[in-house]
Structure formats: C-alpha cells, structure tokens
Amino acid sequence: MSKLWGGRFTKQTDQLVEEYTASINFDKELAMEDIQGSLAHVTMLGKCDILPAEDVQKITEGLLKVRDRIQRGEQEFAVGDEDIHMNIEKALIDEIGPVGGKLHTGRSRNDQVATDMHLYLRKRVVEFVDLLQKLQAALIGQAKENLDTIVPGYTHLQRAQPILFAHHLMAYVSMFGRDIERLQDSYKRIDTLPLGAGALAGTTFAIDRLYTAELLNFGRVYENSLDAVSDRDFIVEFLSGASLIMMHLSRLSEELILWSSTEFQFVELDDAFCTGSSIMPQKKNPDVPELVRGKTGRVYGNLVGLLTVLKSLPLAYNKDMQEDKEGMFDTVKTLQGALQLFAPMIGTMKVRKERMRRAVDQDFSNATDIADFLVGKGLPFRQAHEVIGKTVLYCIQQNKFLLDLTLEEFQQFSPLFDDRIYEVLQPEQVVNARNVYGGTATGQVTAAITRAEVDLSRTAEWVAEYQEKSR
Ligand code: ARG
C-alpha cells in the first residue's frame, strides 16, 4: 500500500511496525474535529491566496462528502493509513483527485493533531460543566426536601455532632462547584489554537493564523510554534480536573454504599440503579456507586500515565505523544458514564428520615452542646469537656443517653446544670445553635441553598454561551 509519506522509502513498512505505530483504531474519535480544522484551514489558504478559489471549493466539497460518509458510518479506515489525519486526506484524494493533496499546504500533522484535540476537549469541557450542574441540581433538590431531616454528622466515622442532612448534601454541591470552576478556568487554555505552527517552526507560506482562529472560534493562538505542537498541558489539566471530579463522586459513592447498608438504612437507592445477586435472592446491590468508586482508579491512572509520558520529552513533537489519546478518551467515557447516572440516582434516592432520626436520638452527638452550656455558665471549656466526658461515661455504664438523665444525676457532675439543658440537648436545638455562616443551622442551610441556586443559574448561562462558542 502506498504511503502519503512514501517518497523517501525504498521498502514497505514491516507489517507489525505498521500495526504498532498506527493510531487510527482510537484517533478515529477525532474525525469530526479533524474535518472541522481542515475546513477552516483550507478557507484560510484561499483567503490568503495560497490556493485558488476553485481548489478551495473542490477541497471543501470533498471534505463535506467525506464527513457525510463518516457520519453515516460508511467510511472505511485503514491501519495502513496510520492515523485519522492521513485516512481523511486519503479519502479526500480518492474523492476529488490529486487536488486533495493541496489541503496539507502550510500544515503538519503535528499542529493538526494538537488542533483536533483542542477542538475535542473544548466541547467536552462544556458538556461536563453541564453534567455537573445537573448533578448539583439533583443534590439541591434533595437538600430542599431534607431541611428538617437531622442525621448524625461524623468524624472518624464516629458520630460527632448532629447536622441537617441537607447540610451534608450541600457539601457535595460545593465540591462539584469547585470542579465546575476548574473546568471553566481550563477552558481558557484549551481555547488556544496551535494550527499554523507547522511541524515545529512555523511555515514558509504567508498564512493568517488569526483568521483560522476566528473561523474556529478560538480566543487566541499559541505564541510559540514549538510550544504549540508539544503542549499537552491542557490534556493534563483536563485529566486532573476529571480526577478530582471522580474523587468527589467516589467519596459520595462510599457514603451511598454505607447509607444503603442494613447497618445504616439511611437511604434506599431506586431499584433502577441497583442490581441483584445470582445466588442470594435477598440482595440489592449498589453497583453504580461501587463501580464509580472503582473506576476512579483508572482516571487517576490516565493522569499519572500522561504526566509520565510527557516528563522527559525533548521539544518538539515526539511519537510518544500519540499516547495522549487513549487515556483522554477513556477518561471522557468514564466521566460521562458516572455523571449521567449520578444525577438521576440522587434525584430518585429515598431518604429514610425516621431511621436518621432514630440514629440521632440514640447517640451522644449532643455532648458538645452541654459542654458549651457549662461554658456559658462561666466554666472554662477544658473543664467543661472533662465534666461531660465523665457524664457520658456514666451514661454508657448506665446504658442511658444524655436526655435520659435526671437533673439530680446531671448535678452529680456539676452544680451548674439546670433545667434548661433538656432544651439545649434537643437535636433541633443542637443543629440550630450552629448559626454561623456556612454552619448547619436551618437558616444558614436555607441561605446556602439560595446562593447555590443563583450559582446554578449562572452556570446554566455559561453552558448555553459556551456550547455556542465551542461548536
Ligand atoms: N497520530 C499522530 C499522533 O497522534 C499524529 C501526529 C503524527 N506526527 C508525526 N510527525 N508522525 O500523535
């Protein structure tokens, strides 16, 4: 088979080498972006009088035909043509004849592939902001339904202080909010066009890079041609943003798995999001959160993999860089799967308020509040802590909870106790006493939800605007 670069060679490529070096089996994912970049490139070549208008027209029409064939799934790709760029160029030449060979004027596969990936990730980043926003909306929806639901809050997975379940859910809304900001920020750097850098040094043709950037809706072009073709920071940034998203999803997954266990029974995931056991008929397994937790590993792996590929590469392009793609595609797929499932899974989750309440009534998570009560009576906090520690120990020995103690029993530990502690110890009181910005008091959580909803509508506007820009 003749190669597009075959002129300098006297022998055929070894069959195994051909298979080993080809990327078409995975970079065909970039077909649409490759054609999008080529259409802009050839338009620019025409505008700069590098190609005559009739050639530009033929090439444009040819590219559109190839694009249609690919979209209909009718275009065959060949390993012998190595990658998506040469497969499409070959298809174009088959379609319109040797004039198709003019498309690659003033361009290299090195700036071409980088352009394709910028175009590809630009769209994905907008998609992920949209998916994250939908997940936030589902979490906020549940939070609103659970403004009166009190659960134990944990540290060390030991009951610590009671909190609103809404407050717990809103913590994840904040986490995904940072993920959204990170993706939005990364957009700036993805939105930089490498095309026109040529193989590494620029090109001898009088091209207009800014015009190509305008056609492709890029905010700017790379400053330095070597950097343009060897930069993969934007992919690393994406993988690192994706790793954080997966880490957050994995922490939430872990909680969902715990909460839906018989030991907790705090929530029940909808049947549609669970699976059964082939042997144990009673089982309803939280496979989705388990898999999300498991798949977090491969996303981290993809990040570390690419960082390692890049770490000692001399400038500019090296074939090693072809290894940037599979991890990126895999991450996109993994993240899409997780985020698409998570929003409806959270939205349909049944919250077992009565189980949560029982947990709160049967623990010592109100202990800090009686310590604070004694502090209010003038006792130094350290001494109050000691008094309550002894009181709790007494309760444990007597098999009682704090609210079960009589005032006389309390007063054995400190004469400062009075009737008001029974009010102070009520879970609602304990929760609402934390009336500090960002705290769990009902008023604070309600305000946090209102602020999150404002952010949510801003994110929705951003998505609408950038869906247009990244097209
Ligand atoms: N398939 C290649 C890649 O993904 C395209 C760039 C090839 N450039 C080259 N000089 N061989 O990296």
TrEMBL record:
According to the lineage, what is the superkingdom?
Answer: Bacteria
Residue ranges occupied by any Argininosuccinate lyase C-terminal domain in the UniProt entry: 364-432
GO terms of molecular function: lyase activity
| Main localisation | cytoplasm
Q: Where is the Fumarate lyase N-terminal domain?
A: 7-301
User: EC number(s) per UniProt?
Assistant: 4.3.2.1
Q: Reaction(s) catalyzed by this protein?
A: 2-(N(omega)-L-arginino)succinate = fumarate + L-arginine
What keywords were assigned to this record? Amino-acid biosynthesis, Arginine biosynthesis, Cytoplasm, Lyase
Family matches, as InterPro entries: Arg_succ_lyase_C, Argininosuccinate_lyase, Fumarase/histidase_N, Fumarate_lyase_CS, Fumarate_lyase_fam, Fumarate_lyase_N, L-Aspartase-like
Where is this chain's protein located in or outside the cell? Cytoplasm
Mind telling me which Pfam families this protein's record contains?
Answer: ASL_C2, Lyase_1
Protein family (similarity comment): Belongs to the lyase 1 family. Argininosuccinate lyase subfamily.
Family annotation (NCBIfam families): argH (TIGR00838)
Cross-referenced PANTHER family? ARGININOSUCCINATE LYASE
Name-wise, this protein is Argininosuccinate lyase
Q: Which organism is it from?
A: Cohnella kolymensis
